[in-house]
Specification:
The chain is of the alpha/beta class. It has two domains: about 240 residues, P-loop containing nucleotide triphosphate hydrolases (Rossmann fold, 3-Layer(aba) Sandwich); about 130 residues, Roll (2,3-Dihydroxybiphenyl 1,2-Dioxygenase, domain 1), CATH 3.10.180.10. Helices cover about 30% and strands about 25% of the residues. It is built from 13 helices and 15 strands. Helix 1 packs across helix 2, helix 2 crosses helix 3 and helix 4 packs across helix 9. The two termini are about 35 Å apart.
């Protein structure tokens, strides 16, 4: 175990904060610390708090934090804020609202900038949730930015998803039900002391009556006074948590690149085996024609030179048709490049866009044991 991981397990808040910053910045050492801590994850309950703007999510999270601490349990709050257009950092509204907890060593609060990510979360949110879990927190509460109909990434992260609504939404409940309404384990009607709370509850009950086998709890709260917070915490504890793996993603094989003299002849051969071409294009930067054939979870990429002097033409002249490269899909291309450069690996190009629009780099065979390796940025869509 690294020294940083040891300090985090010992409860060192500064070490935890440094690791969180490193993970957000995709620092290879911080990601290595996260891997060292992975065996200690699995204790915390990961709770997602989501809903439309103005629902009072931050105030609700603040009240939940107070209730959790009254039970003698620890928690981390990951508040995903919109990115500042000036600095790219988080607009720290959530931190301002939660100032009362900063002197409490049992609460760790982190505001995260979306940095252009969609779905209501920041790119590193899952990794930070795992970090907080492995650090020994009893609860990890993830508050999304204000979301709309189909920004439902939180459901893939949280074990328990709480959707917060407020009176005055009226027909909006029906309008958004095809998105965030379908991911709720618990519905919270916040600001329930205001007119219209009963109508929201009735619309929820009517909507849920049409579904079978799914009965999310409905809890009324007034987060500013603490009303309903204890029942909400009890409802969270009673939900059977969904199992999610928060481990750092490992690279997977995206495709095998095969140099061929004729795409048409090679395609005919593979089609005789039952393969079908899913994509064809010419990549001008590499002077190559590409045909992609899905093969289970990966692909076979056939490569024919499209112009004299292309890398594929040179390969064919030197070695003849055959395996040209292996392509690995990585969760964070920038972090992978930084890690490779720290070991002295030789990269053949700066990141650029290839077939299908993905970003990629090639690693020289001298650094890989004799095989040309392509690293591809895993899709974030």
């Amino acid at each position: 175990m690294t020294e940083a991981a040891h300090h985090i397990r010992e409860g060192d808040a500064r070490a935890l904060a440094r690791a969180a910053t490193g993970i957000e910045n995709r620092d290879p050492q911080a990601l290595e610390t996260l891997r060292d801590l992975a065996p200690f994850a699995g204790h915390a309950r990961i709770v997602g708090i989501t809903g439309p703007p103005g629902a009072g999510k931050s105030t609700l999270v603040d009240a939940l934090a107070t209730a959790v601490r009254k039970q003698g349990k620890t928690l981390a709050i990951l508040a995903v804020d919109p990115s500042s257009r000036l600095t790219g950092g988080a607009i720290l509204g959530d931190r301002i609202r939660m100032q009362q907890h900063y002197a409490d060593p049992g609460i760790f609060i982190r505001s995260m900038a979306t940095r252009g990510s969609l779905g209501g979360l920041a790119r590193a949110t899952a990794n930070l949730a795992q970090l907080m879990d492995a650090a020994g927190k009893d609860y990890v509460i993830v508050e999304t930015v204000g979301v709309g109909q189909d920004e439902i990434e939180i459901a893939g992260l949280a074990q328990v998803t709480v959707v917060v609504l407020v009176p005055g939404m009226g027909d909006d409940v029906q309008a958004i039900k095809a998105g965030i309404m379908e991911i709720a384990d618990i519905f919270v009607i916040n600001k329930s002391d205001q007119p219209g709370a009963t109508r929201v509850e009735q619309e929820l009950q009517a909507m849920l009556s049409l579904e079978h086998g799914r009965q999310p709890a409905i809890v009324k709260t007034v987060a500013t006074t603490g009303e309903g917070i204890e029942p909400l915490l009890e409802a969270i504890a009673n939900v059977s948590p969904r199992s999610h793996s928060l481990t750092v993603s490992s690279p997977t094989i995206d495709h095998l690149g095969i140099a061929v003299k004729s795409l048409e002849e090679s395609i005919a051969f593979y089609e005789s085996l039952g393969f079908r071409v899913s994509h064809r294009e010419t990549v001008s930067a590499e002077k190559v024609q590409v045909a992609m054939l899905p093969a289970g979870d990966s692909n076979i990429e056939l490569l024919e030179p499209s112009a004299p002097g292309s890398p594929i033409e040179k390969f064919l002249a030197a070695r003849g048709p055959g395996l040209h490269h292996i392509a690995l899909k990585v969760p964070d291309l920038e972090a992978s490049i930084a890690s490779l450069q720290s070991t002295g690996a030789r990269l053949l190009n700066a990141p650029r866009r290839g077939a299908g629009g993905h970003m990629y780099v090639f690693v020289h065979p001298a650094s890989t044991g004799g095989v040309l390796l392509e690293l591809i940025q895993e899709s974030t869509n």
